[in-house]
Amino acid sequence: MGIKRLKMPEYSFGDKVKWHAAAVGTAFKEAFFPHTVTVHYPKERRKFPDNFRGYILFDIEKCINCWQCAFVCPANAIRMKEAPNKKYYPTIDYAKCIFCHFCVDSCVGGALRTTKIHDVAYADVNEMLAETEQLMEPPEIVREDRRYVEYVIEEDDVRLRRVKGQDYLLVEPPPRKEYSMVCVCDDPESCTGCGTCADVCEHYAISISIEGEYKVIRIDTARCTGCGLCVKECPLRVLRLVRREGEQ
Amino acid sequence: MRCVAAVSEWRVKLVGRPKDVSCPSVVKTQVIDTGLCCRCMACMAACPAAVRTGVGFDFEERKHVCVDCEICVRVCPRLDYKPLSGIGSYIKAVAGRSKRFKGQDGAMVTEILMSAMEMGIIDRCIFVGRDEDWRTEILHVRDVEQLEVPTLTGTKYTFAAAVPALREAVLNTKVGVGFVGTPCMVSGVRRLQKELAVFRRKVKLVIGLFCTENFYWDELTEFLKERGVDIKKLVKTDITKGKFIATMTDDVVEFPVKELSAIMPSGCRVCTDFSAVESDVSVGSVGSKPGFSTVLVREENAKEVLDFIREHGYADFDEVSLEFVERLCNLKKKREANIK
Ligand SMILES: Cc1cc2nc3c(=O)[nH]c(=O)nc-3n(C[C@H](O)[C@H](O)[C@H](O)COP(=O)(O)OP(=O)(O)OC[C@H]3O[C@@H](n4cnc5c(N)ncnc54)[C@H](O)[C@@H]3O)c2cc1C
Ligand code: SF4
Ligand code: SF4
User: Fold this and answer.
1) Angle A102-A107-A111 (CA atoms, 0-180°, nearest 5)?
2) B13 vs A196: CB contact, 8 Å cut-off?
3) Assembly ipTM
């Protein structure tokens, strides 16, 4: 059938001596300069990359209360909780979290960010629910590490580099490009001219006037702040936010 | 996909009504008070004020919230009413009986909608269901499994707010919406499509039902109660061969439809469209054997769906006798005399 037998390669006497000598050499090398790839946690920690998916931190200033994190979480670990200011902010149940960081990726305001912390200990499961306030500060962890370890890849080999000192576990969120948005109508043929948009606009950016046989609707793009209120309220959803011209 | 480039200045044509008359007053005096209104509710489907304030169909209430947009005036099929009649144009006529669904007759309406969904022409459609008192209820069907509710198919001889529900469906669909309704509702949908581009783009299939008349729920239930019908036990209502047949779990009540003429709504008295001339495909019971639905395929989109049904063997087909349909069309055409 499909079984293929492998043949032993034929080695000459010279080859055999050479390979044996190489093996003895490696044994001596390992005896004096051991080549282990084990990280001796907790005395040393591995230095993780900045995109490591660890404990999540929350910046309340950047949260726009869009609930996107709670919607996207596949483990249902995020619950939005009402704060005294009547806004809703996320809480994360680490008993459920699978560290996929979909929430971090989906956060529009950049309020959620990762850390390189992976070793928070809890006394019982109820403690694993991190309230909003807890998410705003890095969690307390016990650190006994004196060194951090980096894996260095050399040719076909992996080597450890041990560096004295403690790795910094917080990560600066990557810089975000902020876009300035402006409202436009992309379906004027479905507009009834009801004036809802002009009504709700807090910046008086939309005006409606009657000119002859027509009702004319104008968006003053200089006044529009791109808040999107009109887009949300338009009964036939003919408005849309787009990036301002000239922006990439 | 939207077809027009984004703009920050655009215009909407005004209909040119007298300055001191509000739009709801125009409709109220010219359509409601004259008895022309057919309760298609196209006006409510388009009215932004109704959407935002939650007011219903009542025009007195609507006057208070009106924002003067004129869309009700633009979409009402009974303002400048041009009555349609006859059997209309069609590509072919067949009788069909679905093998998958149970309905009023051959459940071809349900079959066409579900097949269109399977084909990916539409991703949702609007069904008129009912509660246990036979009040109509609207359901957005997005999955065949929803049809496990047995009251969803079958005819309810009372008005339904399917067109206002169409608005929501049109705004939420990714692909397209399928609609089914009486001839007046079909006309209302066509007017919405004429005036508002979203409806043009998103309503992909319009099924018209043959219809002689429809009723107000309170008047019809009152009438049926007098005839000894227990609404709670009612399982099917049907009008065939000039008889109204109310089938209950333990009894059947029959009487000539003529007796219902006392409660026939004024909008139906002036309606001459029996076969839903403006639909993509019309379905009714006359013209085919019991258990079959008569299907008049009028447009290409509907023809494709019927070809799909045939290919997949989802339905049995049979001959139709259109003379019966034509007879009812002619009978209804006589109502022209009622239009002043
Ligand atoms: C008010 C009314 C009067 C009718 N009069 C006649 C008639 O005189 N002669 C005739 O041949 N046929 C008439 N029909 C059509 C007939 O009763 C069947 O609806 C048609 O044959 C389709 O049957 P089916 O088994 O294929 O539909 P099914 O698969 O059972 O589907 C029926 C569809 O009708 C919809 N529907 C039910 N009630 C209403 C309603 N009140 N408004 C809008 N949609 C509704 C449901 O949503 C469902 O999608 C009438 C229908 C209605 C609604
Ligand atoms: S808001 Fe527009 S659609 Fe509604 S009643 Fe007024 S004019 Fe008619
Ligand atoms: S006919 Fe239709 S659009 Fe006109 S007033 Fe009646 S329900 Fe409204």
Assistant:
1) 120
2) no
3) 0.87
pLDDT tens track for B274-332: 999 999 999 999 999 999 999 999 999 999 999 999 999 999 999 999 999 999 999 99
Which amino acid is present at A177?
Answer: K
Q: Please list every residue in chain A whose beta carbon sits closer than 8 Å to the beta carbon of residue B16.
A: 213
pTM for the full predicted model: 0.79
Q: List residues near ligand 3 (CB under 6 A).
A: B 27, 31, 37-43, 75-78, 188
* Closest approach atom of ligand 1 to CA B108: 26
Q: Which domains does chain B have, with CATH numbers?
A: 2-75 (no CATH), 92-215+264-338 (3.40.640), 217-259 (3.10.450.750)
Complete domains list, chain A, with CATH? 50-139 (3.30.70.3270), 181-243 (3.30.70.20)
Name which residue sits closest to atom 44 of ligand 1, judged by CA: B181
Closest CA to A54 of A134, A120, A137: A120
Q: Decide: helix, strand or coil at residue A193.
A: coil
Query: Sheet of B92-98: strands edge to edge?
Result: B136-141, B124-130, B177-181, B203-209, B281-284, B293-297, B92-98, B315-318
Whether the predicted pLDDT of B203 surpasses 90 = yes
Task: Please report residues of B whose CB lies closer than 8 A to that of A210.
Answer: 14
| Cβ–Cβ gap B4/A189 under 8 Å | yes
Task: Give the residue carrying structure tokens 């080859």.
Answer: A15
CA-CA distance, B194 to B200, in Å (whole number)?
A: 7
